[in-house]
Amino acid sequence: xxxxxxxxxxxxxxxxxxxxxxxxxxxxxxxxxxxxxxxxxxxxxxxxxxxxxxxxxxxxxxxxxxxxxxxxxxxxxxxxxxxxxxxxxxxxxxxxxxxxxxxxxxxxxxxxxxxxxxxxxxxxxxxxxxxxxxxxxxxxxxxxxxxxxxxxxxxxxxxxxxxxxxxxxxxxxxxxxxxxxxxxxxxxxxxxxxxxxxxxxxxxxxxxxxxxxxxxxxxxxxxxxxxxxxxxxxxxxxxxxxxxxxxxxxxxxxxxxxxxxxxxxxxxxxxxxxxxxxxxxxxxxxxxxxxxxxxxxxxxxxxxxxxxxxxxxxxxxxxxxxxxxx
Length: 326
Prior knowledge:
Elements: H1 19-38, H2 50-59, H3 64-84, H4 93-121, H5 125-132, H6 142-149, H7 153-160, H8 168-171, H9 173-193, H10 196-220, H11 226-229, H12 232-258, H13 260-280, H14 286-307, H15 316-321
Helix pairs in contact: 1-2, 1-3, 3-9, 3-12, 3-14, 6-7, 7-9, 9-12, 10-12, 10-14, 12-14, 13-14
């Protein structure tokens, strides 16, 4: 793929909505929520019921929704940085970090407030142990709270190798930690590399690194899901694929808009990769996570690359349907 040098004036993406991005984000969140509901014992699902069997078959591997979400995040953050300056070497880092903090910190504070309130108020032990907080060291464990406030909760999980000791309310913060660590380093990398071709090479290298890291974990610690699921190194390939998607979209957008057949080809191929991998995979099997995570991420990227240029996904009706994902 030929990488064109960016023009001196960058189009303003701020008001340029992409309904398909919102739709993929919405579906990703719904699958993750479905997975959490499925494995939350207070619901006491009766898997002899046909309804629960169907729910189980659809959402059992809903954790792959995080993979799709990471691709979207990598795309959007690269897109945001691209519109902030015509020169990669002059990215306004201070402005970027302030905007990210303003977006993330209020929601993060709300999560902490809800969790702390539930810990102190809700008396039901089963509910608290599964949804809120349960640690051998007790709620006063400083390393737990330190990992929260430093956005390193994913590394805390890897170090302690505990997930059942934490409620799903807290576990949602591992993916936020991965994203925040990536957002901290990523703009610095883009600014240092400076040129699109160098950036693209670095992103491809990160995709390879994420895959190789999961292979190394499988060889070094067979059967351990923590380092291959929650560590930043194990998820960097999905975020990097999102970054590659931005460059592909910028360089192929005019061509794909003119040739709707090519757009449909990318969209169909990407959807087939995601659906087929999701159906035949099992997120609980570490060997599957090694290969299938990257496959689903690539499929998501291909689907978005083609779909963002299809008229059907730009209609007013689709825009309204995708609004919750915004």
